[in-house]
Amino acid sequence: MTPREYLIVALTIVLGIHAINANARSWDLAVVIGNSVEFFFRNKTLAGQIQIKEAESLTGVAYDDTTNTLFFSDTRSNYSVFSINLKEKNDTAKPLVTKQENNHIVGLAFDAKTRNLFWSDGVKSAIMRMHVPLDGPPEKPALLHDLKGSSARGIALDLCNSRIYWVNSNKGNQCIERSNLDGTERTSVIKKDMLYEPLAVAIDHAERKLYWTDDIEGERSAIERTNLDGRNNQTVIRIKRHQPVYLAIDRDTLYWSDRVHKRIWSLPKNAEPEESPVEFRPYRLYPHFAELNGIITRDNTEQIDCERYERIMNYANATLAPEALPSLNNLPTGTEESEMVTEKSQYCLNDGIMDDTDEICRCKPGFTGAHCEINLCHNYCLQGSCSINTDNLPTCKCSGTFIGPRCATDPCINYCLHGGQCSVQNEKPVCKCKYSEGSRCENPSNVTKTCETICAKTEIVPMNHSVINCRCDKTNETSAQMIMTNGERYEYTIIGLTFAVLTIVLMLVIIALSYYVNTLRKRPRIRKRFVVSKGGITPLTSRPQIPDNQCEITIENCCNMNICETPCFEPKLRTAVAGSNDNKKEEKNSLLDNMEGNSW
Questions:
Q1: 296 — phi, psi (to 5°)?
Q2: Cα within 13 Å of Cα(402), Cβ side
Q3: pTM (2 decimals)?
Q4: Helix %, strand %, coil % for the chain, to 5?
Q5: Which of 1, 69, 281, 396 could in theory staple to 264 by disulfide, Cβ–Cβ 3.0 to 4.6 A?
Q6: What per-residue confidence (pLDDT) applies to 324?
């Protein structure tokens, strides 16, 4: 935070205390999700909740502080715009605009001074305006701007200058434009070369800043700000995997609704660069069809004291010399505020003490400036913590491996190769190698070489005493494992793998042969009939009449042999019985003996 920004915030808080105490609020922040509205205090406490039965999917939200009326837009029900009076005890919403064909209202904004309700229509590519009187029905909506094919998204009002800002989010014509509330002096404030896909926009009346969200290509999003005229661009925060679709701001905090995580996030509007957003309210347990949309704060929508903010800005832009201080006596209008700022101690910030003799501020260590408004440690250490030494100068204690007077250099970036761990000793990088050698681990071991052969961009990670995992990429989608037992080299692993493959092949061959043998054993029996005579054996092909000197025999499951003068014979065993070779010979001899004994 610059000294000017710090001073503006400090004075805004001081001058706003009386107004807040005089009119205690019933809520500070309102959020719409589905057809419900939730109200919160700034400390995240839930102040109340209402459900609009007539609505289905609320999107934009606006507030009229004069009548305590909330306005809502709806993209699914029969009505595009509702209103509900918070003073009334019931939750009945009043329809204001009937649903029309291709009507899609995204953003809402209300100007209490002119009693005009503005909205952006994303489908019709238009900015519309409708007068809402205190008494009587609203007037017919009128076209304020025809955006001619652009996709209108978020809108916001600069109430102090009577201007309206809106976002065009379609690629190729993305920009942020503004005009007077009557539609005149339309101009482009942020050009398309500064944007990718802007979604939401907000006006900070206290600091006269324009904030917007940009859904950058990929996973990144950003919240940025400029002056109201588009100059002095600053990035507030860059975030990943967020989609900030609606943005709101109060006197010191930014809020946005995120559809990716379905949450409301908060962040100080003058946060440090390394500061992360804080979860304000989670909605992930809500039904998936209940979309998280509009968000609004009381600070930036109620009756804005533009004259007070004007005086604060004039004071901040002054030279801050002691002679300029008396002009602050004209800043407040209330008695309590006047007493607060006329004390000289208020001129010394950051617990500085006013020296009545010299009428100058005596600053605490670490601060300087005419009003102790400059923090010497602010943004001094880029990667580390800052402290003030005995000479009242900032010094840095670097974090991690960063070195240098402002912790701006990391010597370990890409220094250690092949997965080596880098540390800094005496401001020099030192590598602790895992599976390689050398001062930078540049000489890989056999394991590393093998991993580099199999995988690309390897990262070798020890899993236990005998297994090493070679991760091929950062997503760990593929991996190759190499077995190393008791310090053996990779070549032994190749031998083991080869033996395992051969074993598997041999088992497959044995299984195939077993199946083939078993199939052959189940083959059908073989029977042959012969006509036997002294002249030899003649196969019987038909059944002629057999002469007296011949005989017909049938041989089953026997080998083919010459049978001479053999009578008809029926073998005792039709199926061979497993046994030794002696048994087989005995059976054959028995067969021949029987044949010889029956010959004639």
A1: -150, 150
A2: 15
A3: 0.54
A4: 20, 35, 45
A5: 281
A6: 42
